[in-house]
Amino acid sequence: MSETKVLLTEKEMPRAWYNILADMPNKPKPPLNPATKEPMVPQDLTPIFPLELIKQEASEERWIEIPDEVMEIYKLWRPSPLCRARRLEKALDTPAKIYYKYEGASPAGSHKLNTAVPQAYYNKKEGIKRLATETGAGQWGVALSQACNFFGMECTVYMVKVSYHQKPYRRSLMHVFGSEVIASPSDRTNSGREILKKDPESLGSLGIAISEAVEDAAGRDDTNYALGSVLNHVLLHQTVIGLEAREQLSKVDNYPDVVIACCGGGSNFGGATFPFAYDKIVKGAKVKLLAVEPSACPTLTRGRFGYDYGDVAGFTPLLSMYTLGTEFMPPGIHAGGLRYHGESPLVSQLVHDGIAEAVAYGQTAVFDSGVLFARCEGIVPAPESSHAIHAAVEEALAAREAGESRTILFNLSGHGLLDLPSYDAYMEGNLVDYPLPEENLKKALEKLPKI
Ligand SMILES: *Cc1c(COP(=O)(O)O)cnc(C)c1O
């Protein structure tokens, strides 16, 4: 009997992150300063980011060494396991081999700690005492709270108000690690007060919370800002996922035909797939890279490719990406981590150039597959991750249809143990799909900045 779990030793962990900017046939257009609309220069970012991360954001070095201090903390949960989903294969009666990389085993319960730790580390090293950030459903806020705690830093998290009230346990976790958690929009910032003046009942959004956190960080010398997805340096740090997975598969003499990950801002997708994108671009490997998004927030499949802001107030640089427009208000689907109007410029460019592809699914089908996975493999997946599971199930069924074996690898970005109310809603038959009407999409896209 061959193995179900493929493990690496600590000695076999990658010692450097893979930077795909070194190898992309077309690099994304540069970020623009929001005020001048000219390409950003490093000084534009020094009020909110440490120099080392600004350097990584634009670096074209293929490998960037992981600092020892970061390696030491990574070892608390890395290398993460690669598992063969044999019981799921059997349930689907498929000749395909299904592997998943399990990032839910991190202390944060998701992949987000892979970048939270180096971000806190570089800030600390450059004398920063406090980080400000935003969080939607709370996964990023938890990860950054843990990372700041490891390095003895303070952390303030602006949490989208609707989640602040609906996801009390992630808020509790942030408190355990010593963070201050503020419901956004708040009266702590000009941008928050501005929104509250117009709409005192505002439930908040990620775009608003980002404005608040950036304003907080820009206003204090001892404070920087940290972002959990979208930016190049974030995806860079996440490549430990794909580097490990590629090594683990090679230990069982295998290589994937398709690599799948869900896509919100693109960080776990980039992390899982970029090492395979390297094989594809540089070595001509035939591997399909598939990003999965919710049909309620279909950035890659129906958004526009162009410049847009990352936040509502327009404080962030203009990024070249697929976007639904900052005014786009995604419906309250249960995969909170996938409700973002924009997308990583790196992932956007790869999809634009046909190196990666994207597909969108409704949440009821996604939960069907998430529950099937839980019942077969014993792990309750995060609703975000279930998007990847559903695509893997579709690929496995296509393999059955075609009567051919293939190797499917997907990233299980997190567990769903703090998302049980969503599972209750599913079990009670209260989940609905929100296909996005063409009209709403058109209206949101009309508001894109003209560059
Ligand atoms: C935040 C999150 C996502 C979405 O973010 P990406 O940057 O697209 O990876 C997906 N899965 C989980 C478990 C998350 O916490």
From TrEMBL:
Gene from which this protein is expressed: trpB_1
GO CC term (a single one): cytoplasm
Substrates-to-products reaction catalysed: (1S,2R)-1-C-(indol-3-yl)glycerol 3-phosphate + L-serine = D-glyceraldehyde 3-phosphate + L-tryptophan + H2O
Keyword set includes Lyase: yes
Annotated PROSITE patterns: TRP_SYNTHASE_BETA
Catalytic class of the enzyme: lyase
E.C. code: 4.2.1.20
Gene3D superfamilies reported for this sequence: 3.40.50.1100
Keywords attached to this entry: Amino-acid biosynthesis, Aromatic amino acid biosynthesis, Lyase, Pyridoxal phosphate, Tryptophan biosynthesis
Protein name: Tryptophan synthase beta chain
Pathway: Amino-acid biosynthesis; L-tryptophan biosynthesis; L-tryptophan from chorismate: step 5/5
GO molecular function: L-serine hydro-lyase (adding indole, L-tryptophan-forming) activity; pyridoxal phosphate binding; tryptophan synthase activity
PANTHER family documented for this protein: TRYPTOPHAN SYNTHASE, TRYPTOPHAN SYNTHASE-RELATED
Subunit structure as annotated in this protein's UniProt entry: Tetramer of two alpha and two beta chains.
SUPFAM superfamilies noted in UniProt: Tryptophan synthase beta subunit-like PLP-dependent enzymes
Family, as annotated: Belongs to the TrpB family.
CC cofactor: pyridoxal 5'-phosphate
N6-(pyridoxal phosphate)lysine found at: K112
Function per UniProt: The beta subunit is responsible for the synthesis of L-tryptophan from indole and L-serine.
Domain Tryptophan synthase beta chain-like PALP: 76-414
